[in-house]
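Deviations from the work plan: none for this task. Representative record:
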Amino acid sequence: MTPFLQIENLSAVIRGTSDRLLRSVSLEVNSGEVCGLVGESGAGKSMIGKAVLGILPAAVEIAEGQVQLDDEDLLAMPQADRRRLIGAKAALIPQDPLTALNPSRRIGPQITDRLIDILGWTRRDAANRAAELLDEVHIDNPQRVLASYPHELSGGMRQRVLIASAFAANPKLVIADEPTTALDVTVQKQILRLIREMQERHGTAMLFVTHDLGVVSKVCQRLTVLFAGKVIEQADVADFYAGPRHGYSKALLAATPKFTEPFTSLMPVDRAVITAVTAEIEAADGAWHHG
Amino acid sequence: MRDGRGTVKRKAGLRLWLSGGWLAIVALLTLLAGWISPHDPLAQDLFAARLPPFWVDGAEPGFLLGTDSLGRDVLSRIIYGGRIALTVAVIAGLATAVIGSVLGLIAGYYRGWADAVISRLVDIWMAFPPVLFAILLIAVLGTGLWSIVIAIIVIDWTRFCRVVRAEAMNQSQMDYVSSAVVAGHVRAAILWREIGPNVLPTIVALLTLEMGIAVIVEAILSFVNLSISTDAPTWGGMIAEGRISIHQAWWVLVCPLIVLFLTVLAFSQFGEGLKDRFDPVLR
């Protein structure tokens, strides 16, 4: 069986230059599987999700590579087809629940828009489905929330709404872009559990972007480690935590804060490791520029 | 913190009520001018010329704000002048808002060549000095109410275009726009549903400001006698006539001037107040 999402040799550059933000990234997500995508801030984790969903910033363009969603080449098809395909089969759980809902529209239509416009549901069906979804994400009194404006809801509630909205059209793939980063620590856990629950219930494939290796171990089956837009290591989660192969992964794992250790034992990723992995990437870049 | 916000909110409310109240009074008076105004604004009575307003000695009871040098009632002329001022403000303001906002939204959201064309056009347009441009336009179009309206639209659409474009660009960076793209909506739908409503408060604030500007432009043009026919009452025309007799009858100049000043002030304050009230971030 081919993977549901298959990224092959994907490179993205700053428009008009050869400065690469993604360096020949290959990555697959099978149906029903949760894949972690880990890296430090600026490693290009979110960029991969954005490239798949077609929401790259205007200053970034894709230089080479293939993105296959459900056996269809996203980058080769006309824009309108791609828009419809993504709308019907993929969804995004965004990072910041405070900016991801339109402040001047009520919650209800923000969830039902996609069902009505892209899937052709009737207004009534879509409204019922929206209430059902809010129930699924454990929101009490869905009708009241559907009639609210985003500023009337707390951050955790908004993230629940966004999760409900992401699963509204029964997508085959959900890309979760640091879905808990902007939340309070106490809420993070609930939201993680909820995402996992929704993923299992809907049998959705998921690309889970995060900087938190602790989260990956709880949510994902496989993970990909990214540094400076390059894939450093791909492994099953169990194998990875037993012993990462690459030096950078080891250093990253060592830098993850542990609950049992005092604050003073916190340390950033070792400089020497960064220097080594940077040299490795630069060598590969040299080949890319001349090739 | 909470106290600070509370105070700000109260102020915005008061501002909204005062400016809105004044505009409502002016609008009502001009709409009902036929019934309310005490005299025919064009009726001359040389025996009753230069009567002072009611609080000055020698005033006649029927003429609240006195009469001008031809014996015409100042209050009635202000009311009928308001009719022209408000007509120009509403029609020119709305048309300017629609044209400028549509172009601004297109430029700011679609970017690309549309943005390049519209933005360069705005740059060139804004290089013309507005009042001279207006006088030139009137000279070409001929005097009259519609010429003034057209002149204002032609000159001031750029004001909306610039601001709305910037705001639309801002909005297109927002996460909810990305989410709408992922959901598969066409760009026109995103522009209409996600961007439009969030740019609307800015458009409304600009619109009221523009109405104030339209009132001033109409006054300037009638002051230099480029508005509608000379004897029709306009605020600018009254100020021009009052200027000649300022030493004998200051009220002919001062009364319309105060009304003009308050009206323009009310428009701009009303816009600011509305923006504060409806801004989703401040709300």
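Residues 74-110 of chain B form the longest helix (37 residues).
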